[in-house]
Amino acid sequence: MKSAAFLGLADALERVRGTASKKEKVAVIAAYLQGLGPEDATVAARVASGRTSERGSRDEAQVGYATLLEVLREVTGATEDGVSRSYLKHGDLGEVAEELLAHKKEQPLFAAELSLRDLEEGFARLRSAKGHGSGSAKRRIVKSLLLAATPLEGKYLVKALTGEMRTGLVTGLLEEAIAAAYGLTKGEAARAHMVLGDIGAFAGEAASGTATSVRIRPFRPVNFMLAEPFATAREIAEHFLGTAYAEYKYDGVRAQVHRSGGEVRVYSRRLEDVTASFPEIVASFRGPGAGFIIDGEAVPFAGGRPLPFQLLQRRLRRMEDLEEAVKKAPVTYFAFDILFRGGEETVDLPLSERRRLLREVVAGTSARLAETTDVSGEEGVQGAFRRSRDLGYEGLVVKDPESPYAMGKRGSGWAKLKEELDTLDVVVVAAEYGHGKRAGVISDYTFAVRDGGGLKTVGKAYSGLTDMEIDEMTERLKAITVKDHGYWRQVRPEIVVEVAFDSVQRSDRHDSGFALRFPRIKRIRADKGVADIDDIWKVERIFSGQKLKVEEA
Ligand code: ATP
């Protein structure tokens, strides 16, 4: 089948960007997708969502701002000053590309239309360019794509390569458009997308007419079920009414373990394949036996007690010799759920039943079952909570024994209880050099929460990290700098941190209209990406919750 022209997609995305109406955005994409075969639909949906590779893949076609700017200058003959002016005008590298490409210096030898297949081939080559010499290989690939691109195509190519689409086409709308294009109900679309984990794969199945028969299977990671936060033991007791399971809230890294045909793979909460970081988990489950997918927490654990979560960070970012890491902070896997067993999905079974299956899977391995006690009433929950804190755990996750596994949802079947005031997961958007002892390192971080498709700043933190973490942050922030203003720099929003704070105030210092009081960084959340950060709604909720308390007092 002939692949469709990239120009059609660029055109559709431009129209989506041009309208504020969600309904119209969905209609434009749905009409566009209808004309595509499965292979093209996969690429188109992925690009529309700002991705150049399957979600969860470790091979990203990432291209830094510096490379893109360099290639754009080369292709268009623009000066550094010209590029800088254009960037200041648009604040978006895709639009810079569009403006500059209108004056191309070089023309390709054989002018040919770029198809979606050409695009995917380019991405595949970028994904496999690794290690020594990959920089110049990437430059060459991007150059050949940009040479062949029209200004509008160049715009959306650059947007996809930087992951910054700014079309307002959030995942939910894209999912709706795919459903409309291929005649799926909302529920069918949500389920297939959830199981596949990747919008491109979902569009491909939808275009093939096979979306309704997609099933969970090993080595295809599934979106994790999340817990709803509760403030007090009483609220939890009221929420569950009868007897519920109380489990320790293990403070480690969430991990999904898949086994099939003797092979074991581990996936992170972002659905990345992190098998290489967890040899202990692989060793726990290697061997014959039925295939399964289980959910749990990888916890650094020694002498019968949990060790600080931070000990896992370097291992996850592959900055540490693994053998050394395994010796210093060995990981134990605490399993708490099962999604698939011996050829069958188990997500719709009640938790009590899933626990029984999970027990069989974990028996005889060096992994452990998360400890569960039956609780009921406020005192029961409070007692279990105290015990968990005394033993060094973060709190409790209380679960409804009847509940199914709600993939990708903050389901009402799980409730979490932690002691301190809520924390926020935020992304660093700008940073500054510190003073005194911190001169020479980048130690002040301005951070933002989500607001619709954009980001809004809510505070600036100076404390909470160790000297070593600050050194690492300094290196990373330098590498992702978008604009260097001397003492401060604007950075690409990708480092997620969890901040604690005393309260939320109204303020015009930040563009969200709120400021966190006394924010401090609790930890760097290497396990989360910018899509997982909290949104302004949560900040507003905490703000109005405080007001209520003050009024009541
Ligand atoms: P947090 O920042 O509180 O860890 P989160 O946003 O990572 O929250 P939530 O689903 O809101 O995720 O909170 C539950 C988290 O607690 C899970 O993601 C998981 O990593 C962890 N956890 C620890 N022990 C358990 C358990 N027994 N059952 C479920 N989740 C658990």
Instruction: Write down how many β-strands occur, each being a DSSP E stretch of 2 or more residues.
Output: 21
Major pleated sheet = 7 strands, mixed
| Uncertain runs | 548-553
Number of domains: 3
The second-level CATH architecture of the largest domain is 2-Layer Sandwich
Overall description:
The strands form four sheets. Strands 3, 4, 5, 6, 7, 8 and 9 form a seven-stranded mixed β-sheet that branches. Strands 13, 14, 15, 16, 17, 18 and 21 form a seven-stranded antiparallel β-sheet that branches. The radius of gyration is 25 Å and the shape is globular. The longest helix is centred in the C-terminal third of the chain and has 17 residues, at 536-552. It has three domains: 51-162, DNA ligase, ATP-dependent, N-terminal domain (DNA ligase i, domain 1); 226-418, DNA ligase/mRNA capping enzyme (D-amino Acid Aminotransferase, Chain A, domain 1, 2-Layer Sandwich); 422-545, OB fold (Dihydrolipoamide Acetyltransferase, E2P). Helix content is 41%, strand content 22%. It contains 20 helices and 21 strands. A hairpin with an 8-residue loop joins strand 13 and strand 14 (442-451). It starts with 5 loop residues before the first helix and ends with a helix. With 553 residues, the protein is an alpha+beta fold. The structure holds adenosine-5'-triphosphate (ATP).
